[in-house]
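Support request from a user on the community tier.

User writes: "When I paste my structure tokens into the form, the page sometimes reloads and wipes my input. The last time it worked, I copied everything first. Here is what I submitted, just in case something in the input itself triggers the reload:"
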């Protein structure tokens, strides 16, 4: 079995078209998932809806060609959308944000050349989960007006200057301006999405490969058409529907692309936004790349430094033609692998289909109610900040839960960057307190193929040691023997245990013999 998989891994590297039979259908599935998400994330960004489509096209075609990953799918992401929402308000226009996106792309390329691809491993998982959970909460809150058909200026603002205070004021306004037609569409869309994703339905091929978001969007179009015929008082007007520009020809289509405004190139705020985009986009891309490599049936390792450069190129291109920032997105990547995607052809196919779609059928896309997209974003936001996540983090203990909650509260009451700084400071304080009496060290020696490598873990092994342990294990030569000695360890961080488990699962591909001493009690404690 192992020999067959290894042979498959070598064959898959032979060319872009080596798995056409599975890559093309997978690209179609990813396209069907990505289209409503690209529109929804544009809506969440406060940017033109066309900008999300552009980002999806660039993420599929441009990043697909230059990325070293075989299975990653890139496009606009919910996490970066909220940075854009705030930036449009602080900088004054979306065109200026486009210039920040280009600068962010340049920062990412520089990070790639600085070999900073392991930067994500230096952030504790509790803080990362706190960032994503806070983004999920803000995403849900920001979509309430669209879900209920409320149209107003400055709905919820961003993540700064009285955000929380504005929430209650706007909710009271929604009660006065609620649209029954939009509310029904939101509720029906939510029911469809949750019902469609139930495990007992996933055993059927149709439910497994046809995305729930697409079905919700199509049903919402049908409901609004029924409104127009039978209940005109409930029908949604153009202000509550997607509004993509419609071209009479190819030349006019390309005129719809927006170009950046560099008039504030000397404004320090522009570079603050660019750093925010670069940080969040890089962090999400690296985390998605790590998760994607675990999903890859051939267990291929993606160069994180090359991935940073590819995402940087994607953001430069997207910024120059009017697109949102792009990142690698784990939802689309996992759908790609599940659907049979094995080479970059699948992600390139999804981007190409998106381009063809907006060029040929924009009138159909413009029939999609914004309420349905809000329902899709509600689900995306809930997955980031679910009740199960809070319960899991609470059970993990104070060392995990306190930084997690501190990061959420800091982001909600200040802004994203300040929240990250505060969350990081809380995490560092807890780690330094725990490490005060028990400093960490790894006993490792230079080794060659066939030799024995011994890693001795100290009393406290924290997320700060995550990168060094991962790099050490990644560079173990084939046909070697590895001994991981945890007999002295009092506490081993969940992030480190996850790395060791991943190494255990993939060691056979290099014919590496692994022996662990005193590690099982820590694994049992983590699983409990």
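"...and here is what came back when it finally went through:"
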């Amino acid at each position: 079995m192992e020999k067959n998989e290894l042979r498959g891994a070598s064959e898959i590297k032979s060319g872009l078209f080596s798995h056409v039979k599975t890559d093309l259908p997978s690209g179609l599935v990813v396209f069907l998932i990505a289209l409503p998400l690209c529109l929804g994330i544009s809506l969440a960004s406060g940017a033109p809806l066309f900008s999300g489509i552009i980002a999806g096209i660039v993420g599929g075609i441009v990043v697909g060609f230059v990325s070293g990953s075989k299975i990653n799918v890139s496009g606009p992401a919910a996490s970066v959308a909220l940075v854009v929402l705030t930036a449009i308000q602080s900088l004054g226009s979306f065109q200026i944000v486009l210039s920040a996106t280009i600068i962010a792309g340049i920062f990412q390329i520089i990070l790639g050349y600085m070999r900073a691809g392991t930067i994500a491993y230096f952030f504790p998982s509790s803080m990362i989960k706190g960032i994503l959970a806070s983004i999920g909460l803000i995403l849900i809150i920001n979509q309430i007006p669209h879900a209920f058909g409320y149209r107003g200026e400055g709905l919820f603002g961003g993540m700064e200057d009285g955000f929380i205070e504005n929430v209650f004021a706007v909710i009271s306004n929604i009660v006065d301006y609620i649209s029954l037609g939009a509310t029904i569409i939101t509720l029906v869309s939510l029911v469809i999405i949750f019902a469609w994703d139930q495990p007992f339905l996933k055993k059927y091929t149709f439910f497994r490969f046809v995305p729930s978001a697409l079905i919700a969007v199509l049903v919402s179009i049908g409901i609004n058409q029924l409104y127009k015929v039978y209940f005109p008082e409930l029908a949604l007007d153009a202000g509550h529907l997607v509004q993509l520009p419609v071209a009479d020809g190819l030349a006019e289509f390309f005129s719809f692309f927006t170009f950046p405004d560099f008039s504030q190139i000397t404004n320090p705020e522009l570079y603050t936004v660019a750093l925010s985009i670069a940080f969040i986009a890089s962090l999400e891309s690296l985390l998605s790349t790590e998760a994607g490599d675990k999903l890859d049936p051939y267990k291929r390792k993606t160069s994180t430094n090359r991935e940073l450069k590819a995402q940087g190129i994607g953001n430069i291109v997207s910024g120059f033609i009017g697109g949102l920032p792009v990142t690698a997105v784990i939802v689309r990547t996992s759908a790609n692998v599940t659907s049979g995607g094995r080479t970059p052809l699948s992600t390139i196919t999804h981007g190409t289909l998106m381009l063809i779609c907006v060029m040929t059928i924009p009138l159909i896309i413009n029939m999609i109610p914004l309420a349905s997209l809000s329902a899709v974003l509600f689900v995306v936001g809930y997955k980031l900040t679910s009740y199960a996540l809070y319960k899991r983090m609470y059970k993990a203990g104070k060392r995990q839960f306190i930084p997690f909650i501190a990061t959420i509260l800091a982001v909600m009451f200040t802004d994203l960057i300040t929240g990250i700084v505060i969350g990081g400071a809380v995490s560092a304080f807890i780690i330094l307190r725990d490490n005060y009496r028990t400093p960490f060290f790894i006993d490792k020696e230079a080794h060659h193929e066939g030799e024995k490598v011994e890693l001795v873990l100290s009393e406290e092994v924290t997320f700060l040691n995550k990168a060094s342990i991962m790099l050490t294990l990644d560079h173990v030569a084939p046909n070697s023997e590895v001994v991981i000695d945890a007999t002295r360890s009092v506490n081993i961080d969940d992030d480190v245990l996850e790395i060791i488990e991943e190494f255990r699962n993939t060691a056979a591909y290099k014919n590496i013999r692994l022996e662990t001493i005193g590690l099982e009690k820590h694994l049992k404690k983590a699983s409990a």
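Agent notes: The reload is a front-end session timeout and is unrelated to the input. Confidence is low (pLDDT under 50) at residues 1-12, 153-162, 437-444. The two ends are 32 Å apart (CA to CA). Escalated to web team.
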